[in-house]
TrEMBL record:
Membrane topology: Single-pass membrane protein
Annotated compartments: Membrane
Listed name of the protein: Uncharacterized protein
Gene Ontology CC: one annotated term: membrane
UniProt source species: Opuntia streptacantha
Transmembrane intervals: 14-35
Length: 116
């Protein structure tokens, strides 16, 4: 029972095909009943629904989708600005550190040459 479907299909091809045939045959026999059940359920569901409400729901969903998309885009823009600010701070601190290090280098070099 612990075999993967690929190994089962490779080693027990006949068993896999027989199982697929039985499942498809069962679906073939039950499909008309399932279709009739779905049609009745749909008729029962739409019996008291007006045409206007069928049109209002997709518009409502569309408006919600637009709002969601806009909020995601706004959040993305905000995070880009924050990332840019963080990068600018990191760049400024690195350039300040390199400036300080460069400013210290000649004085250290002068001190070393004076000691020799």
């Amino acid at each position: 029972w612990a075999r993967s479907p690929e190994n089962l299909l490779r080693q027990e091809t006949y068993l896999a095909l027989a199982t697929a045939f039985v499942l498809l045959r069962l679906l073939y026999l039950l499909f008309p009943y399932l279709l009739e059940f779905a049609c009745r359920a749909w008729r029962r569901y739409t019996q008291h629904v007006r045409i206007g409400t069928l049109w209002e729901r997709p518009l409502c969903y569309l408006n919600k989708a637009k709002q969601l998309f806009n909020s995601i885009m706004d959040a993305r823009k905000r995070t880009n600005f924050q990332g840019g600010a963080i990068n600018a701070r990191a760049w400024a601190s690195k350039s300040l550190a390199s400036t300080v290090a460069l400013g210290d280098a000649p004085s250290r070099g002068a001190g070393l040459s004076a000691n020799h």
